[in-house]
Write a structure and sequence with these properties.
Helices cover 53% and strands 17% of the residues. It is α+β, with helices and mostly antiparallel strands and 432 residues long. The chain has two domains: 184 residues, no CATH class; 226 residues, no CATH class. The longest helix is centred in the last third of the chain and has 43 residues. The radius of gyration is 36 Å and the shape is elongated.
């Protein structure tokens, strides 16, 4: 009771030191919870979440390189020489399989030239084309780019349950405007190589691409390319007729079982003969890395900040301890010793004077960090949604306990460092 009473009185006499110790503890514990949560989120994003990806891999002509080799004029390039056939893809996949890489899935988008009765391209010299998608998943990584249906409804790929899947198309907004086409209109697709092959289809919707890209970049003229399911393009005789043909622009996304297969897949395909005129890319991995790049960059800064915070917090706390129980308290120690108070009890009093504000501040900061980790991590990198894991909580607990133990040791040592000579000198100074 004596120690607690003296502790409370001392804290009242040294309000500035008490408040500053508490604020230091708040800052360090708050920063610990938030900082460690962000670092944990970054680690999870680059390991567990990344390793769980099933990345799509694609071979695409390096059009920039090829155009540069042609003197910068894309019109001089015979792109059919760089198109890959179904047989080419089968060969490369077989080689990858022999190297121990198994595909989880595959999606295709095949673009062919097409004529449409009564419909003209949006500009002179342009050629109408149609892209047949194997399924909805093929769209996300396609050369055409993602799109928005501005009128009508999207394509259907369920030929077993939807009779419209093999008879409807999407028309680009620019082409629809040029030819006054509307949702529900019927148009006739004509095979340019064989005008006797025709197919009447209904326009289910008008679409607009989310991002613009030039034909030189992708080989796709977005304003003049109709979209459909492969059921439509095959029925029209535009795709799927010759597996060895390179007349069409075939773009296949091969889905791997894990990112660890990507390097093995690339090596196997290059070894099988795919030239440097083709890029091997994974849109899945590229998009994911782009998404977490702000988090990785932010985490690198947070890591430095956390270390600096611990160093600064430790130095400030030590200075405050020295200020609170330093030479200025020697007289008090002398008096208490003379009236029979043991140095252990004096050390315990000093400990409580500093432990209580540190403990209260530490708990307050940790609570604030718990509720602030998610919004602050999202401010650093959108979609991070950092959560305070059990590991983070235990780390903060152990750091806090370490700080408390260190404080207690310093206080006990300070109380026992006061010698008889020091006491006498202190009393003599007080009587002068």
């Amino acid at each position: 009771m004596f120690v607690l009473k003296n502790t409370w009185a001392a804290m009242g006499r040294h309000k500035a030191q008490t408040i500053l110790l508490a604020l230091t503890a708040v800052a360090v514990s708050f920063g610990s919870v938030v900082g460690l949560s962000i670092l944990d989120a970054a680690n999870t994003a680059t390991t567990t979440t990344y390793n769980a990806l099933t990345p799509s891999v694609m071979f695409r002509a390096d059009r920039t390189r090829i155009i540069n080799e042609a003197g910068g004029d894309a019109s001089k390039v015979d792109w059919t020489k760089y198109n890959l056939s179904w047989e080419n893809y089968s060969t490369y996949v077989e080689k990858a399989t022999n190297a121990g890489v198994q595909l989880a899935n595959a999606h295709s988008a095949e673009t062919a030239k097409v004529n449409v009765d009564g419909v003209s391209a949006t500009k002179d010299g342009a050629q109408l084309a149609i892209t047949g998608f194997s399924d909805a998943d093929a769209i996300a990584d396609s050369l055409n780019g993602s799109y928005t249906v501005v009128k009508g409804k999207d394509l259907s790929y369920d030929t077993n349950n939807d009779e419209n899947a093999a008879s409807t198309v999407l028309v680009p907004q620019a082409l629809a405007t040029k030819n006054n086409l509307k949702v529900g209109d019927t148009i006739k697709l004509v095979n340019p190589s064989d005008s006797s092959q025709t197919l009447e289809v209904k326009i289910s919707g008008i679409y607009k691409t989310k991002s613009k890209s030039s034909e030189a970049q992708t080989g796709i003229d977005q304003d003049n390319t109709i979209l459909a399911s492969t059921a439509v393009t095959m029925s029209a005789g535009l795709t799927g007729t010759d597996t060895s043909s390179t007349a069409n622009l075939l773009d296949i996304a091969m889905v791997l079982q894990s990112p660890s297969d990507y390097t093995k897949f690339e090596k196997a395909v290059r070894k099988a003969g795919l030239s440097k005129d083709y890029m091997i890319t994974s849109p899945t991995i590229n998009k994911y890395n782009d998404k977490i790049e702000p988090l990785k960059n932010g985490a690198a800064k947070v890591r430095v900040g956390v270390i600096a915070m611990y160093v600064a917090g430790g130095v400030i706390a030590l200075l405050l301890l020295v200020w609170g129980i330093g030479r200025a308290r020697t007289g008090e120690v002398s008096f208490l010793t003379m009236v029979g108070v043991t140095r252990g009890r004096i050390g315990w009093q000093f400990s409580l004077e500093n432990l209580l504000p540190i403990l209260v501040g530490w708990l307050a900061g940790a609570a604030g960090g718990f509720f602030s980790a998610k919004p602050l991590s999202n401010a650093l990198a959108a979609g991070t949604n950092a959560t305070v894991s059990a590991g983070t909580i235990w780390t903060v607990v152990w750091i806090g306990l370490g700080a408390l133990v260190a404080t207690m040791v310093i206080c006990l040592v300070r109380a026992n460092l006061t010698t008889a000579t020091t006491m006498l000198g202190s009393r003599m100074e007080e009587t002068r």
